[in-house]
Amino acid sequence: MDPFLDGLSQHLGPAGLVTDPADMAPYLVDWRKAFSGTARAVLRPGTTDQVSAAVRLCERHGVGIVPQGGNTGLAGGATPAGPGPQVVLSLARMAAIGKPDPIGMMVEVQAGCILQTVKEAVAEVGRQLPISLAAEGSAMIGGVISTNAGGVNVLRYGMARDFVLGLEVVLADGTVVNGLKPLRKDNAGLDWKHLFIGSEGAFGIVTSAVLRLAPSSRSRQVALLCVKDLEAAISLLGLFQDRMGETLSAFELISADAMRLVENQCGLAMPVSGGAWFLLVEASSSLDGLAAAMETALEAAFNSGLVSDGTLAASEQQARSLWALREHLTEAEARAGKSLKHDVSLPLRRMEAFLERIGARLDEMAPAARLNTFGHLGDGNLHMNVILGDTPAELASKISAMVHDLIVEAGGSISAEHGLGQYRLEEWQRLTPKAERDLAIGIKKAIDPNGLMNPGKAIPGAGERI
Ligand code: 2HG
Ligand code: ZN
Q1: Distances from the Cα of 306 to the Cαs of 107, 225, 260, 278, 309, in angstroms?
Q2: Closest ligand 1 atom number to CA of residue 152
Q3: Number of folded domains that form the chain
Q4: Which single residue of 124, 129, 190, 203 has CA 20 to 30 Å from 166?
Q5: Is the domain of 57 the same as that of 75?
Q6: Does the C-beta of 134 come closer than 6 Å to ligand 1?
Q7: DSSP string over 295-343
Q8: Which ligand is the nearest neighbour of the Cα of 136?
Q9: Range of 383's domain?
Q10: Residue with the nearest Cα to atom 4 of ligand 1?
Q11: Is 181 found in the same domain as 247?
């Protein structure tokens, strides 16, 4: 037998090593089937020691390692790419959840825990983990941390980074660094965990984390509003910030076209109509008594003339149905054919002009394409996806370059929450100032000198050409 696979089999046992091509196939393609790759094997370690042993073996044999969680990141970060032989290392078997500490407000979890399962576990003790994503039923904590995932509650609670109190990681030479301290405050030296949050496995593998929790919400109010233009949407954001204060937990923007796609592709009914944009507004509180404040805010919104139609969910079930419209956007888009993802953020005051320019440029470049725009208006993040239709495939990279050029010009980011993965690495190279690139590449060289951690993703390794 092959000495590399033989060594892996000894360390990982039969449950931890997949080499049969049919069994490996699901790990070699992402959720959208937009990225696929090849690997020598899929590793499914059950413990941190097994991760460490496997990584040591990979280092000895010069094999790159692609860490994989729920495989729903949408940037190809968990699919093999780049140079050299590689393995996929799935964290799925490492899914233990510690006993949540409701008073210390934290919980220790392994990287393979499904986000939704952790949320359910902490809800039992009256706490919440307010990282909310459409993919939370499959996204794993390790991936959420490695990509610094965002989602719909960033406006109020911040990104995944804001919830990480402690981390355990395995470095490229197999060293285990255990920083699983259940501490809210720890300024004793370098806060190294931040190197591993959002670096998409390019520095090491996240195996466990201590996560900060928040009090559970006892009341929540959800409204769906129609507005005629983006200016009105942004004014309403200000109005709800003023009226609902820190209880404002989501302020989502959905274009009428994107909403129609959900209706047509997923068969969900839209309860309101009559504007170019929809806003899904959520306020939540750990105290009762939010209804009156929300009703007054909505009254002010209607009186301001900014809203053309709207509905306030009268029950939790209605609130869930409104959210279902938002949560089906990605699926509806996937059903509509091939699309280009653009996950941008920019200052709110530049958003309207940016959208107008993109619309005009896209019409010139690719008349058969259409924008599928939605996003987290409350935190300045737009998903400006382009459904290609009959657009010639060779135009795809030109369209993305156009969107990214305009976003850089507007002082924004080419990846607000999904990361670079393999999808945006070339664009990062093209658009990021040299000093910033050199800094990232220098850290990569120091931590992973052989470039074996997630090659071809997020940060180019030494000598790696992209
Ligand atoms: C969302 O906001 C996700 O629903 C997915 O970030 C975005 O499908 C997308 O482009
Ligand atoms: Zn998003």
Answers
A1: 43, 10, 22, 12, 9
A2: 2
A3: 4
A4: 124
A5: yes
A6: yes
A7: HHHHHHHHHTT--SEEEE-SSHHHHHHHHHHHHTHHHHHHHT--EE--E
A8: 1
A9: 337-417
A10: 134
A11: no
Cβ neighbours around 187 below 10 Å, total: 6
In this structure, which ligand is nearest to the CA of 329?
1
Determine how β-strand 106-110 pairs with β-strand 205-212: antiparallel
Cβ-based neighbours of 184, under 8 Å, separated by 6 or more:
104, 106, 165, 212
Taking the centre of ligand 1 as the mean of its atom positions, its distance from the CA of residue 396, in whole angstroms, is 19
User: Same domain for 113 and 199?
Assistant: yes
Q: Which of 302, 329, 356 is the last residue of a domain?
A: 329
Q: Whose CA is nearest to atom 9 of ligand 1?
A: 330
341 lines ligand 1 (CB under 6 A): yes
Which residues are CB-contacts of 254 (< 8 A; sequence separation ≥ 6)?
A: 277, 278, 279, 280, 325, 326, 329, 374
For residue 418, which atom of ligand 1 is closest to its CA? 6
330 CB within 6 A, ligand 1: yes
- Pairing label, strands 86-90, 41-43: parallel
Q: What is the pLDDT along the chain (466 residues), one digit of tens a residue?
A: 799 999 999 999 999 999 999 999 999 999 999 999 999 999 999 999 999 999 999 999 999 999 999 999 999 999 999 789 999 999 999 999 999 999 999 999 999 999 999 999 999 999 999 999 999 999 999 999 999 999 999 999 999 999 999 999 999 999 999 999 999 999 999 999 999 999 999 999 999 999 999 999 999 999 999 999 999 999 999 999 999 999 999 999 999 999 999 999 999 999 998 899 999 999 999 999 899 999 999 999 999 999 999 999 999 999 999 999 999 999 999 999 999 999 999 999 999 999 999 999 999 999 999 999 999 999 999 999 999 999 999 999 999 999 999 999 999 999 999 999 999 999 999 999 999 999 999 999 999 999 999 999 999 876 675 5
Helices (H), 13-150: 21-24, 48-61, 115-123, 141-146
Residue 125 sits in the same domain as residue 198: yes
In a domain, 98, yes or no: no
Pocket probe for ligand 1: among 251, 418, 423, the residue whose CB has the most ligand atoms within 8 Å is: 418
DSSP 8-state secondary structure symbol assigned to residue 108: E
Q: How far is the CA of 330 from the centre of ligand 1 (A)?
A: 6
Residue among 133, 259, 342 whose CB has most ligand 1 atoms within 8 A, to mutate: 133
Residue 385 near ligand 1, beta carbon < 6 Å: yes
Q: Mind spelling out the 3-state secondary structure of 218-271?
A: CEEEEEEEEECCHHHHHHHHHHHHHHHHHHEEEEEEEEHHHHHHHHHHHCCCCC
Q: Check whether residue 227 and residue 300 sit in a common domain.
A: yes
Task: Answer whether 156 contacts ligand 1 (Cβ < 6 A).
Answer: no
Asked if residue 254 and residue 194 are part of one domain, the reply reads no
